[in-house]
Design goal:
single chain; 204 residues; mainly alpha; Ferritin; 83% helix; 0% strand
């Protein structure tokens, strides 16, 4: 799957219009993550750790939106495979919530938050460095470097907490990662097809 991700990112980065739409999609996914945090573990005044994570995700949504507008030279409203992107995130969040409940016998919102964060950040740590290498835009590469550093920082803390909670009930993160890979496949397939179509239309 890594090779496929790398190939489609290289392809979309060749055309500024397509890359701008991709950046707008990344903004959408970060925004979905921020909204998910604010509606669950941050529905009331949260801990410093959760508030920091919420601030990071919101800032990343802004950063990617700003980059999209910079690359496009104006406001960007179009996205790449927005439905598939949202479906991946929402289906993963629901699936992990159900799995967590089956492990603990109760609805543990904080464990669900930890699981979704750990698994989504694992995907981001594949996606963002590959995109940084693929982009021809120096500003995009510079900002992605900053985003990766921030993602790595809270990923370690939250993933360690997640692994500790899972170990307490005799579980590991592997089933969750397998679920994410299965759910990411339709999004990746749609992205490959759409980018190929856009590239062909641009070359015609």
């Amino acid at each position: 799957m890594r090779d496929r991700i790398q190939a489609v990112l290289r392809q979309l980065a060749q055309t500024p219009e397509v890359e701008a739409r991709w950046l707008n999609t990344l903004s959408l996914m970060e925004f979905i993550g921020a909204r998910k945090i604010s509606r669950t573990v941050a529905d009331r005044h949260p801990t410093l750790e959760v508030l920091g994570h919420l601030a990071d995700e919101t800032r990343h949504a802004f950063t990617f939106k700003n980059l999209a507008c910079t690359v496009a030279g104006g406001e960007v409203t179009d996205l790449l495979c927005a439905t598939e992107a949202a479906t991946w995130f929402q289906s993963l969040d629901r699936g992990l919530a159900e799995w967590a409940t089956s492990l603990t016998g109760t609805s543990d919102v904080y464990l669900q938050y930890l699981l979704t964060t750990a698994v989504v950040e694992r995907r981001a740590m594949v996606l963002y460095p590959l995109y940084k290498a693929a982009s021809r835009n120096a500003v995009v590469r510079e900002e992605l470097g900053r985003v990766v550093v921030e993602e790595q920082s809270h990923r370690r803390t939250l993933e360690d907490a997640c692994l500790a909670r899972l170990a307490a009930v005799g579980a590991t993160l592997e089933p969750a990662l397998a679920m994410e890979e299965r759910l990411f496949e339709p999004f990746l397939g749609a992205l490959e097809a759409h980018v190929a179509s856009l590239s062909a239309a641009s070359a015609a």
